[in-house]
Every structure is written in structure tokens, then in C-alpha cells.
Amino acid sequence: MAALGWLTPRRRSATARSVLAGEAAAEAARKSSLQLEREREEAAATTEAETPAEPEFPVVGDVRAAAFFDLDNTVMQGAAIFHFGRGLYKRKFFQRRELARFAWQQAWFRLAGVEDPEHMQDARESALSIVKGHRVSELMSIGEEIYDEYMADRIWPGTRGLAQAHLDAGQKVWLVTAAPVETATIIARRLGLTGALGTVAESVDGVYTGKLVGEPLHGPAKAEAVRALAAAEGLDLGRCAAYSDSHNDIPMLSLVGHPYAINPDTKLRKHARARDWRLRDYRTGRKAAKVGIPAAAGLGALAGGTAAAVALHRRRH
């Protein structure tokens, strides 16, 4: 029997059995880990082949690309021309009647969150009549002060960050707005942007005549301005980006390869989703998603506009 002892399993001590179990488990874990790693690598390779990674944007060093930003409610809360009017009233450029009108237009614009052509035209005509006979240099100087007083705190940080990303990539960034080009240029300079496309008011010998050169830079006119600037700058519009909140700017957004809907109105949001455009919304609160501004700011604007109108009514009667 002793000769056959090697055929009989020996009883191992508890410690020895534990060591054996541990070694076996470690070996199995090592093998399974290697297998899982191989499977993950194969899955990753398959995914990369099926879904190419989205290229970095904006592309650093692409000098044939640029970015075009609408101003009102895209870069800045509210309308620049209304803020400008408020500043001019403070400097006694016009009377309370015009102030009430500006206040109501601003309240409506901020609550609606869209550009109504009739309201905007009325505001432009008011502004033109106010600045008629004043020197361009005078209004530029005042515009710098008005920016600090009424506009600087209304810049959307999120949109400002998007513009800075293009600048950091070495690209030019332009404002494109129906606001007076002088006002737009001041804002662009203060934000460190390249420049601005805006509505041009006629001047003779440096004095405003109260007329426009052509028409307001609105809707299709913005697209034409971007197209002309791109041709002059040697830009490839397919590599450019455009940003706006308004469906009125769909012609401009449709020109570029990278359109963005920023704080979009209802029509633009629907259009952007249908075409898989990128959306960014920097407003807060459920109401803001509907009306296009922070709720508290909207109520404040409405209260301010209404108060001005009521005060004017009382004085008249």
C-alpha cells in the first residue's frame, strides 16, 4: 500500500488550503482582467471606427474662419439702442415723452425676447431724430459713458466666453447688429472683439443728418453684410460660426458652417432643432425659457416702463 501512497490525495492543513485557494483566485482574476481589457480595447476600436470623434471647435490657427455675433439678447440683455436712449435722456437730449416711449419699448422687447420690426423701426426713428445735428465725435464720447452705466453689467458671461474661445483660437470676432455702428463699435472694443457691423447713420462734415445710409442692418441685410465682409477678409463661410437669439437672423445663421442659437426665441429654437444646430441658453428659470429673460429682470423692466407711462399720464392730467 505504501507504494501506492502517491495515488492517495494528502490532507493539507487549513493554512495550506487557504494559500492554494488564494493563489488560484489570483490567477483567475489576472486572466479575467486581461480578457476584459482585450474586450474593452476591441469595443473602443469598433466605436471609433463607427463614430469619428467630433473635431475640436473652434479650430486653433484657422485664420480663414471667424465668428459673427448678434448683439441684442445674444451678447447683451435687452436692446442696445434702448440703453443708449436711456443714457441720452439722462443727458437731456430729449424730453419725458420720448423717455416713456423708450421705457415701454425696452420692457416689451425684454418680455417678448424677440425683435419686432415695428418696435425696432420706431426706436431707430426716435434715435435718429434725437441725434440729428449732433457731432459724431460727441455721441461716440457719450456712448463710452453709456456703456459703463447701462450695458457693461448686461453682458451674458456665457456668450462672452464663446467669443473669447474664438479669439483664443486666433480668429476674428465681429458683432453684427441693427444698432448704430458707433454704439456697436464701442461695445466690440470694450469686449476685446475685432469690430462691428451695424446700421450706418448719415453724417456730413462729422454731423448727423437724421437719415440712414441704406436701410437698418436687420434680417437679410445682416447676411449680406457678413457675406461682403467674408469676401473682403478672405474667409471661408463654411468654416465660420454665427450666433443669434432671433429667427430674424436665420439668413445670417444659414450662411455659416457652424450656426448657434443663443437664448433662442420660439421660432429659432424650432428651426435650430429641425436642422440639428447647436443651442445655448444662458437664461435662468422656467419663465425665462418662455419670455427670453430672467423673470425678475422682466418684471423690473415692465414695472419701470409702466411707471414711466403712469407718471407721464399723471403730469399731463
Sheet with the most strands: spatial strand order: 3-2-1-6-7-8
Shape: elongated
Which percent range describes the beta-strand content?
Answer: 5-15%
Query: What characterizes the major β-sheet?
Result: 6 strands, parallel
Helix content: 40-55%
Question: How far apart are the termini?
Answer: 128 Å
Mean pLDDT score: 77
What class do helices, strands and sheet pairing give?
A: alpha/beta
- Report Rg: 31 Å
Count of alpha and pi helical runs? 12
Q: What's the total number of strands?
A: 8
Order of helices and strands: HEHHHHHEHEEEHEHEHEHH
Low-confidence stretches: 285-317
Task: Name its key features.
12 helices, alpha/beta, single chain, six-stranded parallel beta sheet, 317 residues, two-stranded antiparallel sheet
Question: How would you explain this protein's 3D organization?
Answer:
The chain is of the alpha/beta class and 317 residues long. It has helices at residues 14-50, 80-90, 96-112, 117-131, 136-151, 157-168, 181-190, 220-233, 250-253, 266-274, 286-291, 295-316; strands spanning 66-69, 172-180, 195-199, 201-204, 207-212, 241-244, 258-262, 278-280. A six-stranded parallel sheet has the order 3-2-1-6-7-8, sandwiched between helices.
Itemize the secondary structure elements and their pairings.
Elements: H1 14-50, E1 66-69, H2 80-90, H3 96-112, H4 117-131, H5 136-151, H6 157-168, E2 172-180, H7 181-190, E3 195-199, E4 201-204, E5 207-212, H8 220-233, E6 241-244, H9 250-253, E7 258-262, H10 266-274, E8 278-280, H11 286-291, H12 295-316
Parallel strand pairs: 1-2, 1-6, 2-3, 6-7, 7-8
Antiparallel strand pairs: 4-5
Helix pairs in contact: 2-3, 2-5, 3-4, 3-12, 5-7
